[in-house]
Amino acid sequence: MLSPLALTVWLATAPSPDFLEVRQVGSDHQVLATGGLLYRWTGRGALSLEAELGAPMAALHTCEGRRSVAVGPRGRMRMSLPGGLGWRPVPLEGAKDLWAVDSASCAQVLAVGEEGALWEGSLEEAEPRFRRLPSPTRLPLYGVAVAQARAVVVGAGGTVLARRGAAAPFEVVASGTEAPLLAVTWVDGERFVVAGAGGLWLGEGASLRQVLADEQDVFTRVVFSDRTTGVALGQDRLFTTTDGGQTWRPMAIAGALSVVPLSGPRFLVVGREGLWRYIEVTPPEPSGAPVHAPARTAPVETAKPAAPPKPAAPTPSEVKDVPAPAVRKDMPPPVEERCRLKLEKQHMREGFVDLKTAVGGTFVASGDGTVRRVEGNELKIAHRTGEPMLGVAVSQEGVLVTVTGWGALASSENGGRSFRTVRAPSDTAFFAGAYAGDALLVFDARGQGWRSGEGGTFQPVSLPRQVTYYGLSFVDALRGYASGECGTLLETADGGRSWKVLGTPMKKDISGVLAFGDTVYLSGSEGVFRSGDRGRTFKQVLDEKQGCIRLARRGPEVAVACHRGLHYAPEGETFSLVPVPHQSALLAAAFLPSGELGAVGARELFIRAQPTGGAIVNRSPAVERWLKLSEQWQLELRREAPKSPPKVVTVQAPAKVPGN
């Protein structure tokens, strides 16, 4: 396996060695370089070779500013002798690759590595001895942070372990992600920050919350100088915080591998090819907006024919407590051509458009003519129709499933374990479908509706408005709602046989409708509205900047997929933005059987996330990047130390980088 602290070592020959770690020792600093070389920096313009450790090492740590310990592949551990008289090996019987080390004091040192290894011991004894602690995981562990009697360890597969006392065992903490977590540091006695593939997480107690999501980058180091000021290192940029890790701002420095606090707001950053930079971390100007999730690409055009939101910078959700409007008196005419969109099939071919859960799994309607089944992070093809699939309907028992599409339906009577293709009632787009008991209702883009009868045959339903319909939702076998273009909301009380128009505060598209009990939610380009009286009056609960599409619920919890992110309300009224790598072009949300949120969108995007963050994206570039870097580092670890290492390395003058 690989060292997360040096996983990005540049493999090309360079005039200066790669600096993997920098640590303060007394008034000086020690710098660990590739090949197991250890240099000392006294604060002037050159490094002098202090020791050759004899083999590549992955991590360096100093305890109490006076003793040093290094760990690396094949269970190697080296410790410095008192008075700087050299280094000696520390035997660890049966140890395999070690990737990180930290301590609260020289009498309590903790090293972690492969197969969930936790090695603890003291450097104070004449013959230091380390013992292997019981571990609740066999996955590789990449980062460790110790603060007095407490410790946090992170590793592969989203592993987070915590120990709350010196004699307490390590316990698993739910991280909400399966991404490799590579580094961790304490902010104060209660909070810690975790770095990994795809972002940064802020932890407190037994919970983690993702505070920065970047699906392109791998974060390998995070350091704080005090309880507010910190630096995190990615491959392309580093990020700084001045509010304890709540928000992060980027700085254009690539190739950084380690960072250490100096004095005040100054940090020293070292890395590839002798990178040696000073930075100052200061609070932003009042006009500067904090960066939560840096933009990587422009928003993507969605396959959903909904009115786009007004251009605006992504912002967290705002709840507007506006007076509930009365029922509109100016009802739109039954037929108005502008309310029936002219759609073209070729524009429906890309993207995942809807998802819902049945007894046989969670199913996704895909524009490429397939029905997908969610299996972990992958979406396996469960059925092919050859026509763009645009919506998913599931009965309340989860046994009946119909995926609606362009002139075609994929039907299942066994919870999605098998499907068959049937012809839809018309040859156009069907976004809207729902079950009223065992009866299936489907509405098309031309404003027509049908209800299944005996033998599964469809009977036309008379609708009071002919518009493009997007959503259907039933409370029970009798009462339900349909939504569509031009602020259209219909209600039925007889299982979909007859419908009437309800007034709403929305004048544009109503892309989603969700009904349960007396509660009705509407979503669209004007935001999200909630009614507690069966759709008679509404209150806006998510602003119009978001441009929302489809809704989902689990008990009182509600989630909505929007053009500007995935939003979640634990009690159904106060929405917050879920930190996920993609904050645009989401089309549908669902609560997965695992307890996570699921979301799909344009360009075959599928996201799993906890409401507090920790997202997994199918084919995540960050995870793919991590795997490639892992392979490179395996090669680096097999290289022998240089026979004639440079005795002196000149470093860059302490040029000041403007604070951000």
Automatic annotation (TrEMBL):
Residues 283-332, 641-660 are annotated as: Disordered. It comes from the Bacteria. Coiled coil: none annotated. InterPro entries: Sialidase_sf (IPR036278), WD40/YVTN_repeat-like_dom_sf (IPR015943). PANTHER family: PHOTOSYSTEM II STABILITY/ASSEMBLY FACTOR HCF136, CHLOROPLASTIC (PTHR47199), PHOTOSYSTEM II STABILITY_ASSEMBLY FACTOR HCF136, CHLOROPLASTIC (PTHR47199:SF2). This is BNR repeat domain protein. It comes from Stigmatella aurantiaca (strain DW4/3-1).
